[in-house]
Amino acid sequence: VAPTTPVCEVPSSAMTGTVVQMSCKETEGSPPSEYQWYKNGVALLEKTGTGSARAANISYTMNKKSGTLLFNTVTKNDTGEYFCEASNGIGLSQKCSVKRMQV
Asked: Does the entry feature the keyword Transmembrane, yes or no (predicted)?
């Protein structure tokens, strides 16, 4: 079954230095969807715990299985427009509407 449009939860504002968790979920897809987050239209890299993620100055953890995007400490650099895409290899992938977070 192809995924339905996911529900994204993105806070509209966050204080610098706080923990922010965004979530993305859809329930129709079978097999279960994987989720990809985008910021300002660019796919976010999945942090794998290697040194390259640190070198790229990645301050978040993205879980493609659960759809969560977790920022340990947000900075002004994390301000932007976020959306998430659900896909399971069947039918078209589905995106939620873009939501802006101001830090």
From this structure: yes
